[in-house]
Amino acid sequence: MKNDGFRSMDRQECLRLLAKVPVGRVVYTRHALPAVLPVNFSLDIDSAVLLRTSAGSDLVRAVDGVVVAFEADEFDADSRSGWSVVVTGRATAVTDPAEHERLLRTGPSSWMPIQQDLFIRIEAEMVTGRELTDLRVTG
Known about the structure:
By secondary structure, the protein is α+β, with helices and mostly antiparallel strands. It has helices at residues 11-18, 58-63, 97-106, and strands at 6-9, 23-30, 33-40, 42-43, 49-54, 67-76, 81-93, 117-122, 126-132. The chain is globular, with a radius of gyration of 17 Å.
């Protein structure tokens, strides 16, 4: 069997790696075209991806109630190795007041100034990942 340098990772390994990085990219549709937005995030206790944004942001209007993808990765150019994880699931704005209060304490902070904090949950319905290993021949 040929080694193409990629190894598939199971759900638990993917989630463990996701929890180690602070920034990912949400992939969604804007004006019928693909859009990608880098965001800081955290994982909730049920493995959902949590984003914190302003209640009036374009992102909320674009993703609330629709299926989106979320991708995060980590790569080392020197060793030519790293990993990439994609979470696919329905995104919803958190509207429950008790849940909102909990996420104000435990959810992600935002690197951007925010007016009227709103959290978006991306359900971890499908989680896939690949690890890239160095293929250079040593000798």
